[in-house]
Specification:
By secondary structure, this protein is α/β, with parallel strands linked by helices. Helices cover about 45% and strands about 20% of the residues. Helix 5 links the parallel strand 3 and strand 4. The chain is globular and about 75 Å long. The two termini are about 40 Å apart.
Amino acid sequence: MNLNQDQLMLFKTVMECGSFSAAARQLGKVPSAVSMAIANLEIDLNLTLFDRVGREPIPTLAAQHLYQKALHLLVDLQAWQQYAQALSQGVEAELTIAVVSELQYSNWPHYVAQVAHAFPSVKINILNSPQEDAVQLLDSGRAQLAFMFEREQLQSGEQFVEVEPQTLVPVAAISHALAQQQAIGLSSLQQHRQIVVASRDRERLPELSYSKDVWHTDHHDSACRLILQGLGWGILPLQMLHEHPHLAAKLKILPLCDFSPQLTYFMDMVWRSDRFLGQAAQFLIQHIQNCRKNLL
């Protein structure tokens, strides 16, 4: 029995769409063709994948287990095809990397430098953006890679590798009312304006937004300047305060009592598995993966 990528994709689509007709519409096929393809797959596997007792096919337990395996196989196939395409087409002329603005004080330039040394002919473009906009840059193809904060749920087609932990802290100007309190509860925090780094698209809700009164900016440097003016409190990279002692002298890390004042997240390298990646991008991903293995 030889399975191919088309069969796996068809099986995956039926599982996700919930019916042969819906899967057919998504794949641009007629329902009878999808139904027949699934029947042939069942014959090849010697398994019943769907119970056809009602209006819609119901996945069997075997189908549910195979669905998870199919997802992993498709990701591996896409990665293999990407790498083969990169080898056949040579090194990309440009590589665009999105960097979430709060990660400006992370070690991302070190990783970019590895690419520059290995591929001196590649022009590297860096785009700074809020977290939500970095996702859009990847989805639109404007960026091939992105240094982002970890997320609880990835979008379909995304892949990632952890890079390093980063710490964010809630701060206010030393003259701000919150800076005078010894222990700050969440309810008290919510009563004061928060300066939030957020997407330019107002429909994309920002993360780490707690207050009832919120001002938005798309970069942590602008957020810091507003916080220094006493216009609100905000969440900034701890490394930013370490590298700029004059800021640390003007800002106070707020002593929160309802949750930890230090919010530690992993910085991830994220890319889309369904998009072509050139040799330089593949090299950077592999380099970070090797760094992770060396830590284990």
